[in-house]
């Protein structure tokens, strides 16, 4: 009865359009109240959900992404990518994917990257004759890969909830799968553009000089070196790395490029605070739902049923992939982690799966959900900025979806795609 109330009330509120964070918190509170577990535990769960030192990384990296976006780094990365790819059919679409991958090493938020890349790429892609739904689909899918390329908010949250997989190890594990996912996306993106003769209008424009473009983009790309290099050699922790990224971004924007003025700081801080508040609110209120799940012993029977289902190791893994693909279309990644990790981690431990590798698989599935309708946060942002309807993107989203699922299969079949880098970096 209580379990039905917990999930039923959450689903009803989702259908009614209640924000996810509020729906999770209210459903968890209702279940706790009817089970007589003590409503006083609700504020405690809210507090303990976000009272974790590593979560300080989130607002800092969000602020770093805002600073790098305002500093003009994105435009310099576009010019550099254009120097590499050139002009012509499908070129701008490929450039959008490459730029999203480059930006992913600065800010680990998919929606933030989708907004930044749309801002610098969408106008020129529209002028080149690309359909707006195609533009939104490409950029949303490309931005989804950024939650694997460190720094990543999703990987940080996973490491907080699963202490056996530290943030440094998760960052290293996400490098190859995230890069592979981005490169794999280029194939369907370019094929679709060639098939539908997209982007031919700008084929006559000259390619920017390579070395000059590289020099202009080098300082922005060096942010990745600072973050990953400092973590690799133990110079600073992930939280300190986020602060270093903010300081470096301000140095570029205010001193080197001089594109950020003192009066711009307030608006950037407000924007970063709003985004961070949304993320942390989801974490805090989802913690109430997660506490209700664990206290009501809802998770253990489900985990035991899956483990003893007779499907075998790969059958269970296939079941989880299908389940997460479906759930990811309705829930954001943070909610999925907080709600499902108490169920998924015991299953992973029962089969002796490496928890770092398992975290990469889960994050890949969350990336798929970020651009798969109907609940696709990246696609929502891209559609709003390109002025198209989400339902018009379905025909274009299908091929990137299949491509990323193939990447998931590759990481499952060859675990070293995720585990080789952490071993080499000593994590």
Task: Give a nutshell description of this structure.
This protein is mainly alpha-helical. The chain contains 20 helices and no strands.
Task: Please tell me about this protein's structure.
The termini are far apart. The mean pLDDT is 82. 76% of the residues lie in helices and 0% in strands. It is mostly helical.
Please tag this protein with its features.
single chain, mainly alpha
Question: Which helices and strands, and how do they pair?
Answer:
Layout (H helix, E strand, L loop, with lengths): L1 H14 L4 H15 L6 H10 L6 H14 L2 H13 L5 H14 L5 H18 L4 H13 L8 H9 L5 H29 L14 H23 L5 H19 L5 H34 L3 H9 L4 H17 L4 H18 L4 H15 L7 H10 L7 H20 L2 H10 L2
Low-confidence stretches: none
* Straight-line distance between termini: 45 Å
Structural class: mainly alpha
In one word, what is the shape? globular
H-E string: HHHHHHHHHHHHHHHHHHHH
Evaluate the radius of gyration.
21 Å
Number of domains: 1
Strand percentage: under 5%
Number of continuous helical runs: 20
Largest sheet composition: none
Q: Can you give the helix content as a percent range?
A: over 70%
Mean pLDDT: 82
How many runs of DSSP E, i.e. beta strands? Answer: 0
């Amino acid at each position: 009865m209580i379990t039905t109330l917990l999930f039923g009330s959450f689903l009803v509120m989702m259908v009614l359009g209640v924000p996810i964070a509020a729906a999770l918190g209210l459903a968890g509170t209702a279940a706790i109240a009817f089970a007589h577990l003590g409503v006083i535990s609700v504020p405690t769960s809210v507090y303990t959900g976000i009272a974790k030192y590593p979560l300080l990384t989130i607002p800092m990296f969000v602020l770093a992404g805002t600073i790098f976006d305002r500093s003009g780094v994105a435009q310099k990365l576009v010019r550099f990518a254009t120097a590499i790819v050139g002009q012509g059919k499908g070129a701008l679409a490929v450039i959008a994917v490459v730029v999203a991958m480059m930006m992913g090493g600065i800010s680990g938020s998919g929606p933030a990257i989708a907004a930044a890349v749309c801002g610098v790429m969408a106008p020129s892609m529209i002028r080149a004759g690309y359909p707006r739904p195609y533009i939104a689909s490409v950029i949303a899918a490309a931005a989804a890969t950024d939650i694997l390329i460190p720094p990543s908010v999703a990987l940080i949250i996973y490491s907080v909830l699963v202490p056996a997989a530290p943030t440094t190890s998760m960052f290293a594990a996400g490098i190859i799968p995230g890069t592979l996912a981005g490169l794999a996306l280029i194939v369907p993106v370019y094929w679709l553009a060639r098939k539908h003769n997209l982007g031919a209008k700008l084929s006559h424009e000259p390619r920017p000089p390579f070395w000059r473009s590289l020099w202009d983009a080098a300082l922005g790309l060096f942010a990745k070196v600072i973050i990953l290099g400092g973590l690799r050699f133990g110079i600073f922790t992930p939280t300190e790395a986020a602060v270093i990224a903010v300081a470096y971004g301000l140095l570029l924007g205010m001193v080197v490029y001089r594109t950020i003025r003192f009066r711009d700081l307030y608006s950037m801080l407000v924007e970063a605070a709003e985004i961070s508040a949304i993320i942390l609110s989801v974490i805090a209120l989802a913690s109430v739902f997660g506490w209700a799940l664990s206290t009501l012993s809802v998770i253990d029977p489900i985990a035991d049923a899956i483990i003893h289902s007779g499907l075998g190791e790969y059958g269970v893994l296939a079941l989880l992939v299908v389940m997460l693909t479906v759930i990811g279309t309705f829930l954001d990644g943070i909610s999925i982690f907080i709600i499902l990790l108490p169920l998924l981690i015991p299953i992973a431990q029962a089969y002796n799966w490496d928890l770092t590798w398992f975290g990469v698989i889960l994050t890949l599935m969350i990336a798929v959900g970020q651009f798969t309708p109907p609940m696709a946060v990246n696609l929502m942002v891209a559609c709003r900025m390109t002025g198209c309807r989400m339902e018009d993107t379905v025909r274009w989203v299908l091929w990137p979806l299949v491509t990323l699922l193939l990447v998931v299969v590759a990481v499952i079949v060859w675990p070293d795609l995720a585990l080789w880098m952490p071993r080499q970096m000593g994590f």
